[in-house]
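Work through this protein:
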Amino acid sequence: MGPRDIMRDLENPDMLVPPVTDAGTLPNLKFSFSDTYMQLNHGGWSREVTVRQLPIATTLSGVNMALTPGGVRELHWHQSAEWAIVLVGSARITAVDQDGRNFIADVGVGDLWYFPPGIPHSIQGLESGCEFLLVFDDGSFSDLNTLSISDWFAHTPKDVLSANFGVPASSFTHIPKQQRYIFQGNIPGPLESQLVADPYGTVPKSFTHRLLAQEPIVTPGGTVRIVDSTNFPISTTIAASLLEIKPGAMREMHWHPNNDEWQYYISGTGRMTVFAPNGTARTFDYRAGDVGYVPFAYGHYIQNTGDRSLWVLEMFKSSRFEDVSLNQWMALTPHQLIQENLHVGSEFIHALRKEKGYIVKYPGYSDYPRTGR
């Protein structure tokens, strides 16, 4: 009868009318990039989700950024590792490691990059511009709290710059007076025209990985692509899996034994129920642009509640992707013990799978997310 935000209620039906199996209280496990501050610049924009927006998310933070054609995320470096995936368009990235070896490459949709802490780098939009997700291995890290080349120049006396670079102080008359962060530049030429010969060679481990070119794990309910230090060796602090959950399917009931899970919803709609100790469970609804979070070892599953594929990133502050399947665990446990523990019959026991399902879909399940609780 009173005031209400109907559109907000429609986006969060499982908070308005929770499933009867929800119980107790959990911290908020959802935040939308649409609800955070937009940093606008000539050349692009950025917005971030850190512990300031989602206090439970202590292990990882994320930045959604876009660059215009020619737009530049200026030369800079961080105290945290940077992992990224290109969502739209294409970009050119550059970096130089601690041994003076350079790396210059073009990346497109589905491509990743990873820069260890302290490695200087830059990002520039190509002909169509680009949008991407940056993930840092520290939940409190803000991309605005970065170390930028323009900021350092602006806060260094010109006589010091002159001595450092061996040119007259007049060479620095027009340097920026503050950090540029993102600025509009010219669209760079072909990659071959931008390469810089390096007497020390190139980096021994590539800073990029083509995730969509990776052979997926195919299941009846969708696909899974896992990327960690085993197939992207430079990525030693962040592991991830890219999920495609088809309509009527779900990410199976599972948990992660090595760290908290930070999620990014790329497209589609879904809901996740998280199970915690002491009979606590809560359900959250997600859509494109949302961040989700699951504390270490909490059980959970993700259902597709729409009529098209739900694409989700699962991310971890870890060198390895690890998960425990509830189904697989039970299938590999003595059957009598399972039956006595849960009071289930032989039909259930025979249906258990010794292989991980990752994403599952069963006849009769497809209507459940849209019509039932």
In short: Residues 60 and 203 are 26 Å apart (CA to CA). The domain at 214-371 is CATH 2.60.120.10 (Jelly Rolls). The chain has two domains: 36-146+181-209, 214-371. Confidence is low (pLDDT under 50) at residues 367-373.
